What does this fold into?
Amino acid sequence: MGRKRKNSPWRLRIAALAVLAAIIGGIWLWWDVNHWTPPEDLYPDQGVLAGARDGAVNFRTIRALGGSFAYLDASDGADGQDARFTRNFAAAREAKLQVGAVHAFDPCVMADGQSANFVTMVPRDPALLPPVIELTRLADHCEKRVSDAAVESELMTLINQIENHAGKAAILKIDPAFEDRYGLARQLERNLWLTRTRLQPDYAGRPWLLWTANEALRSEASEDPIRWVVVQP
It folds into this structure.
């Protein structure tokens, strides 16, 4: 029988160093992704999207980090209301940030109830930023079948109603799955807000105005990750 070859100490050391390098590289990548924001020289106008899901956000710290605005989750469908909207609204204004409100569109519900919910939450104030309608949910799980044409029709009604209240054109915050299903980004002539951490989004097929550049930014502004947003210069 042949003698068993013993592992070289150098091979063991090289393997251990490779494992260590992989661990360090993974930690660095995690830290970089979770703390990354686009450079201010390319995107001078930056801010935050905040709601109850983001925990208690210190808006003065947001301003110290270079933020100039805060969009706040306000209403959801016909009866959902963000639990922190009133506090966030007052705190963001006190921190001298520009403030805007976001409504989450529910394709299963008629537009009238949704716009009434938004109006209840958001004051008519010309100083506010343009209203945002978030398009995330699909109609696949509605109790009654809702056609794609009905989704588009109710969305257009909602857009018009919210714009009448705000006195400004709405911005459409379209998620990839919603755009993939309904393909409305090119059909609706409104400014777009897209989402993709670290890499510029291109799924809408046309230029965007707002970009959620980091969906889970860790910072001094909150114990929980926050959503960091930039404006196309």
